[in-house]
Amino acid sequence: MGKKQGMLVTKYRLTAAVLAAFLAFTCMRMPLYAESGASNIGRQKVKVGCIELNGFFKKDRKENCSGLAYDIFREISTYTGQEFEFVKTSQSEGLKLLNEGTIDLFVPVQKTAENQNAYMFSTESFAQNTPVLLAQPGSSYCYNDFDSINGITVGTIGDCQDNEKLLQYLQQHNCRVKLKKDYTDFAQMQEALNKGEINALLTSSNRSLSNCKVIAQMPCGDIYAAAKKGNTRLMDSINYALQQMKMNTPHFWEGLDAQYLSAGENVMPAYTKEEAQFIAASSKCVIAVNGEFQHDDEWKSIQTFAERLQQKTGLQIKLLKTTGLTAAYDSLSAGSANAVLPVERDADWAQANGMWLSQSFLSMWNYQITKNGSTNRNTLAVVKGSYQAYDGSKNTQKQILYCDTLEQAINMVLNGQADAASCSRMEGDYFAVQTKYSSKLLFTADDSKTQEYAIGISKKSDSILVSIFNKAIGCMPVSQISSLFAIQYQPQKISTIDYFYQNPQTFVVVCVAVLVTAFLLVFLVVFNAAAKKKNKQLESASRAKSDFLARMSHDLRTPMNAIVGLAHLGEEECKETAAKSYFEKIKSSSVYLLSLINDILDMSRIENKKVELHPEPVNWEEFWQAVCTIVRPAMDEKNLNFIVEEKGPKIECLYFDRIHMQQILINLLSNAIKFSRSSGRIRFTYEACKQEGKQVHVRFSVRDYGIGMSEAFMHRIFAPFEQEHNKRLPEQTGTGLGLAIVKNLVDMMHGTISVNSELGEGSEFTVELTLREVQMPEKKVSASIPAADSHLLAGVRVLLAEDHPLNTEIACKLLQKQGVLTEHAENGKLAVQMFQDSEQYYYDAILMDIRMPMMNGLEAAQAIRKLNREDAKTVPIIAMSANAFDEDVRESLKAGMNAHLAKPIVPAQLYAELEKWTSDKVNQ
To answer: What are the TM regions of this chain, as residue ranges (predicted)?
Structure first.
């Protein structure tokens, strides 16, 4: 290597060493959070101790946090990724927890010399702390009237950091107060103030408070977040986020001030003694209303604002309506008004018009009004004497056209006499919604310069009015004033002729629409006439169908009652085994026949929307055992293996319709039994999954391993009367309504049902429902069903009203087998007569058929209840009828009956019902 090359390499090595040293030094000087753009900071949980102050921080009983500090930390987390947990604490307790390391940060803390020696502080303040002394609105104390304040009792939070500051401040004015440090939060102090236990209270801010007034205010100071010395990494991350927030989102801080630190409801201004004396001495204050704001909605808003001013100031304010802005200013010059509102808050403008200005109470932008598509701005139409005229005159490049009213200025733009017009948003909003202008002109928001509105006070009046108005405005929530002047204008009505003259194309469209509408109306009249005729036919057919089903129900159930009753009696009385077997088969066939009748009637009721759900608390285990008891005999007959699986948490009690849920399960299980092979198996799976609140998602499925079904049939399986012809099934049984009923009932319960099946492999039906978990109801002692030979009803006297001879014979025989003393009436009229002629409490119960000659059962029950004897109101009347619809049950109960038994009568149910209603007699 040559000498020249060696010098070059040495030079490169030296440069690289210097660069490496510079980079290492730079990395050492960088904050820790900068290592990865603050991304690594967020993998930690930071505990923040906060003092509960109005508007600053609040944590309710449900651990929900709110307030200025909470929102700031939530915004910080978007920069650092940290998760903040908030601990409500007090001043002394918070510093103690910080020193112990229980919390990582504490707010708010003031940067005193003592605190700076002990803690690290955020570089940016969270808010300004303004300690204030508050009294009740109606108290006689005035702002900074230290003579009246001297000696009063002031309530404070025990370890409040502002206590010493208050004492020092008042001592500077030769004023001393008694501190009562018995309180832990602001609400306790305010309650004590309302009760008169204290004269005033000390808090950190008079903003966002309610029902109070300030009587002293100490110098404000910044408050910060503090961390324990040495926790540099945490404080660097907080400072980094605060700096980014100040730089990137300045509106965030303005929003916090408006949300949490603006005046609260019913806060009264802090008037000095001189201001209070001026208010007391003034009879009234006349405010001229700027005549530019002449519409009704604007006038109402200004009236409401004036009422709020009167409430805050105590002055008797009278509004003077003027014809224009110039007229309003003339009233100031003439001395007929003390102030003008609203006026633009421009110092030069106010000086030129002989006014002082209050603080701003409303901000809004201006409108630039031009023709659609026009870009010219050479001539500007403005209202004479308005602020827009004053502001426009400063622009020497534009020709100003002065008008008496804003409407005149806008019309000049509409007619092409001016390129543009200018006005405030509130004035322009009215014209922007008027069809005459909105269709031709463009109303553009000029937000380059926000216009501030204030109250202009005449320099001929006392200047103390400025201070009074400023304090009153400061005690009104900003959002309240803004919403007050957020007027929603309605378009002005114009004549039809004018509208069509302005919109000729619309006129043509309307004419065409009228012709088309006329044609459609003629068509609809003809169509509706045909539809009404068709609907009447359908209604007539529906009524005929309902009447037919009602009659069929009665006519079928009446002989079925005889079959079931005679089979029951024959089975009990027959001694021969073979004959006894015949009676058992008759009973079994009658039960099956009854199920077919019930399916047809149930489907009819569902189609006519007459089925109602009656949910109740149901013990699931007991309910399921009852279902198993019903289907078990059919399973045993085919020697089926019944497998039950339960998944999920055990839920004891659910809220549903017991009867219809039982109908769903029994229909599905019966379907599985029907299509299963002998000695096969059926699997029932039940799964519960708790959701939000008390809601429970329930899924149950019934799986059989029988003949299955084709894919084509699965698409219509839930349709009424559908059955698949399957050679593997030797005999088609049933109506094909069971699954249709299940589908409709599941839909009524807002659930779903699905099916999976494969020929030769079996089928699986799955039902999903959302039910409510409820507490287990107290168990009621149910009447026991007496056995056929128990004679628990012996001695009970019953009046049987029944017109059918065979049903009468069967009912009497069934009752006599239990020792019941039975007397028979052939119709309702005779039943009423027999009861009326009997002695008091002679009959223990009445069994009443519904359809009878002379007088039906409903009429007879009503007649008995109306008899003038004590037992007429209390004797149990039990309906025994072939009328089995829900509306039939309701009619029976409405007529005064106690219960309703549908035919065919099951003997055990009859005995149980009688025992229930005659329990006093049975237990004697």
So the answer is: 507-530
10 Å CB burial of residue 87 (0-12, 13-18, 19+) is middle
Q: Hey, is 219 helix, strand or coil?
A: coil
The pairing of strands 339-344 and 285-289 is: parallel
337 token code pair: 């008004």
Q: 669 with 687: CB under 8 angstroms?
A: no
Residue 372, SS3 per DSSP: coil
Q: How far apart are CA 154 and CA 134, in angstroms?
A: 9
Q: How many CB atoms are closer than 10 A to CB 711?
A: 9
Comparing 113-122, 599-608, 669-678, 747-756, the range with the smallest average pLDDT is 599-608
* Cα–Cα distance for residue pair 256/324, rounded to 1 Å: 38
Cβ pair 683, 643 in contact under 8 A: yes
Contact residues for 387 (Cβ-Cβ < 8 A; gap 6+): 343, 344, 346, 349, 451
Instruction: Give the H or E element holding residue 424.
Output: strand 420-424
Sorting pLDDT into bands at 50, 70 and 90, what band is 575? low
The C-alpha atoms of residue 631 and residue 378 are separated, in whole angstroms, by: 94
DSSP string, 51-104: E-BTTTBEE-TT--EESHHHHHHHHHHHHH--EEEEEEE-HHHHHHHHHHTS-S
DSSP one-letter code for 143: B
Q: Torsion angle of alpha carbons 913, 914, 915, 919, nearest 10°?
A: 120
* Higher-scoring residue by pLDDT: 650, 254: 650
Tell which residue, 783, 777, 781, 780, has the closest CA to residue 876: 783
869 contact partners, CB below 8 Å, separation of at least 6: 840
* pLDDT over 50 (residue 301): yes
Exposure letters 402-439 (e unless 16+ CB within 10 A, then b): bbeebbebbbbbbeeebbbbbbbbbbbbbbbebebbee
- For the cut 60, the answer to whether the pLDDT of residue 538 exceeds it is yes
CA atoms of 625 and 631, how far apart (whole Å): 10
How many secondary structure helices (H) and strands (E) does the chain include? Answer: 33, 35
Q: Minimum mean pLDDT among 31-35, 37-41, 572-576: which range?
A: 31-35
Find where tokens 């927030």 sit.
245
Cα separation, 834 vs 855, in Å, equals 14
CB 841 within 8 A of CB 863: no
Could you tell me the pLDDT band of residue 3, with boundaries at 50, 70 and 90? Answer: very low
CA 827 to chain centroid: 58
Q: Residue 206 in contact with residue 270, Cβ under 8 Å?
A: yes
Mean pLDDT of the chain: 80
pTM of the model: 0.45
- Which amino acid is located at 665 in the chain? L
Average pLDDT over residues 690-696: 83
Tell me which residue has tokens 């802090």: 270
Token representation of residue 600:
């047809």
Instruction: Work out the percent of the chain whose per-residue pLDDT is above 70.
Output: 80
Tell me how far apart the alpha carbons of residues 91 and 669 are, in angstroms, rounded to a whole number: 70
Using alpha carbons only, give the angle 310, 315, 317 rounded to the nearest 5 degrees: 65
- Give the single-character DSSP code of 780: P
Q: Summarize pLDDT for 843-888 with one digit per residue, the tens.
A: 999 999 988 988 999 999 999 999 999 999 999 999 988 776 777 8
